[in-house]
Amino acid sequence: MSRAMYLLIGISTLACCCGALGAETVGLSSPGLPPSQFHANGVLAEDWGTLTVTLTGDGLAPGEQRLEAVALENVVPAARWSADFGQIRLQVTAYKAPVYPQGMDVLEVQLEETGGEPRSVTLNLQPSAQLGVGLSTARLGNRVVLSIPLETQRFLETRDWGYVIDTTPMPGWAKPEGDCDPGFANIRAGMGGIPIRYRFRVEKGGKVQVVLGLCESFYGQAGIRPLLCEVEGARPLLVDPVARWGQHKPGALLFTASDDDADGWVTITIRPVPGARDRNPILNVVWVFPTNVRLNLNKVISGALNDQARYYVDVGGKKDQPLLLTEGLRFPLELAAGEKRTLTFYVACAGGQAVVPELTAWTPESLFRAAREVWTGWAQR
């Protein structure tokens, strides 16, 4: 039997238990990769748990639903689930992309207003597992099981500032010596090498002064836990807190930051240094000042200029906060009459991880091209 015939048969038999409203389950596959399952009622099943797609809003009652196996561009096997919620039609298309090494499932969620009136709706992704949710990823432990591409992140409800990645808060971890802000006693730690990242709302294209406060209390020897500090619009800085200030000694780094991409945010990231003995980055305090404030770093360290800061963050302390305004994965949307809108998500497959949007070149377009090329080549073998 030819590969082309195998592909046609595979597409036609992916759906199981077909009925009036389509299939009960559709498999997602790619040559050489473990399969996933998409179930009726908008449920994607993976080895780490399930992810359910739902829609809420005034007057939105779920109506007829249908799940079917389709071939995108007559080549890529996919599951397509559609449901009517009053005047909103929800359609979810899922396929497996050949991302090394275990593959990755791609969810394309399309909402269409069909009643001829503007509508406010909220798209919800409900994982069965308790995940640590940040702006761009949701993690089960250190495993990235869900990614939110940059194009989709703008629909999330956010605060004016907060941490983007859900790292580990450790209040009272540091033992700062000398006159310093109480925030130096607390940290966030990127256990397992996860970067620490915060975002701050600013004027689009604007400039601010960012001060990062650091205090290393675990190591008394230099060279064990260096840190790479990245502030948007400024040159990255490699710092070893023990070598620069000493163990238990509070220190501060000043950056002139700018909103280089004009998205209304300034992002700061503390990364581990490859090859370092300890690759768990830490951060104690962040200050964001207007550019017209004259800064003396000793006064900043002491906390004397806190009232002049636009943002003050006791990292890992009681008033620390996530950038996301609400828990979970909620995407409030305003749809114009007749409007269609598509949101894309990446989901980890069996044994693998989803890519981190800020660290990958993959896009929704390139992922589909890769899937199409793999299946086209497979059919021609």
TrEMBL record:
Keyword terms, alphabetized: Signal
Keyword Signal: yes
Protein name: Uncharacterized protein
Signal sequence region: 1-22
PROSITE patterns on file: PROKAR_LIPOPROTEIN (PS51257)
